[in-house]
């Protein structure tokens, strides 16, 4: 009994302590997925995000004097849990980071009513780029249509695409289908033949049927829109069928170090477009090591920290941090609200100088957002697997956004019509 | 003491066959209904509506549909989620083709489509039984999910292949879509669930329910005493799929707001089957108890460490949660293999004879 009383007392004290800790600072929850089928890719991303915020809290005392309360709510990549987490956190949150296309689709209409910015860096719905229609949604710094355009540009750089055949190997899921309309229009413009090969969610790990089809088609290139277990499945299958790896290119979520370590040397030449790059010499890495890792507050490890996904997590948190800082400066207050953060995220100007000021040298390309441009269209680098790690093999590629601006506008207005009444940002000019 | 039945005399057959022969049962139900209709709406937060009350009701309804087929008529089905999907997609098509339609009418009508599909997939049950039938319903599961993916007309040729619930009004207030208020959605769900529960209770107590039970207990004997097995099995498939279809429409329209085809994949079927089994096959109340255990408890457990202020990472909570729920399921099935409803029935019996057990 005595022990129980002591335990109860401890719990009460702990809750008081936790209560006071939460009251201060900016609450930026992250709907993480450290469990479930996609955990292997989730953990490095989540660690990168958390470590950057922990570093800011330890080094600068948060952003602009306000501590960042970066809390994770575990979803296991399940949409149901994601909505639960959104409902749980939305009361105090200044931003929501849904972390899956499925959760984004569910939460997107709700954020418009609840007026909370939704930050989906490099995922979610490409038409979210239209900031006039999607007032509260951001997919900074680049969307899937940017990725598809840049990949095609890169391939074109190796010779005309006329008469070539490109297999589009994609997950049969909203995420994988997303670039299809753009790829189709590019195929028409550039004269290549597009062969979409879907991979069902149940076939992710066993793609022998798909690769049999690819072998029959004899494509010049394979463009892969894969995620989670699908990537490792496709890469091992490509190696097995002796597909020339230098002709296989993936989206940024298909460039996970661990997927390629399985095949090692055999995967040499595999490419993935990316708007983030792990630069071990960047000052931010040294700061994270000093303030977070050495202090024993990181869940990461040396190997993971040198990978692409960990550094992407850092960039995502840095974008959020920059949005917060911009808003704080403009509204002259440390404790910003969701509406003010939206202004901040709409007015990010990530110049080369600002990037090196933040210590992110070479880790992210420069970009800027506006009220009508909620993506930033940063462009990206083509990364190549050299047998041990990813290296940059291209200069900065920038997407030809004008080419599909109409597609963005029409898809966005289609969405708004289907969800009428859908309030749009009337004040936003051009 | 609380459940003393002394003094409650039945003077007519009607009284003896009443829904609640013991007065206290009616009181208990009254209290539950007051809580559901008055107390919860007055006190619940939006979080409670969205993660506890609405999902528990919808899952209970889906499990009830399955329970009619599996628990009352003895036909094992693994295709529940697919039939829910039929209801959801039917409802989506109806409200997009006919936007003037009353959403509640659309939800209730969408069950008709799933009932039709259910009967079609129920036809093999006339020849095959048990596990073999389970495989036939599994075929429905795979085929229908494939159809939801491939038949672009179903999701209005949307590029992402998902359906989004539009904002729907009834009598001037939004009842579905992102603009809808949680409390109003809760009342719509509660109304429909109450109505269908009443229907199911009376169906299972009546003539039809008795033919189902006879079919379940021994189909040859049932046939010998003159029950038309075809009619019995197909009506079970029909009623079950209707309820499941309505649950599916509610699932998407009143709760999720958007759905992709793989939402209706086999994990959802299993989840509903678990609710029905743990709650108790062949009972109506069991579905509610099962849903509270499988759907509600994890949510409560997830929020527990934070409310108590225990500093523990969210991923760890998730792992603990899975372990706790798993062991609870095993625990309940060991102490009462016939499910929670049976457990409650035993408790009630003990209460009636308390404090003088014989």
Automatic annotation (TrEMBL), chain A:
Keywords from the named record: Signal
Gene3D superfamilies: 3.40.50.2300
Key word NAD present: no
Record keyword Signal present: yes
Signal peptide bounds: 1-23
Domain of life: Bacteria
Record domain Leucine-binding protein: where: 31-387
Pfam family, one: Peripla_BP_6
Family per record: Belongs to the leucine-binding protein family.
Protein name: Amino acid/amide ABC transporter substrate-binding protein, HAAT family
Lineage: Bacteria, Pseudomonadati, Pseudomonadota, Alphaproteobacteria, Rhodobacterales
TrEMBL record, chain B:
A family per Pfam: BPD_transp_2
Gene Ontology CC annotation, any one: plasma membrane
Topology relative to the membrane: Multi-pass membrane protein
Cell compartments where the protein resides: Cell membrane
Chief location category: membrane
Residues annotated as transmembrane: 26-43, 49-69, 76-95, 101-123, 130-148, 183-203, 234-256, 268-301, 322-347
GO molecular function: branched-chain amino acid transmembrane transporter activity
InterPro entries: ABC_transp_permease, LivM-like
Keyword hit for Ligase: no
Assigned keywords, A-Z: Cell membrane, Membrane, Transmembrane, Transmembrane helix
Highest taxon in the source lineage: Bacteria
PANTHER family hit by this protein: ABC TRANSPORTER PERMEASE PROTEIN (PTHR30482:SF5), HIGH-AFFINITY BRANCHED-CHAIN AMINO ACID TRANSPORT SYSTEM PERMEASE (PTHR30482)
Protein's recorded name: Amino acid/amide ABC transporter membrane protein 2, HAAT family
Lineage of the species this protein comes from: Bacteria, Pseudomonadati, Pseudomonadota, Alphaproteobacteria, Rhodobacterales
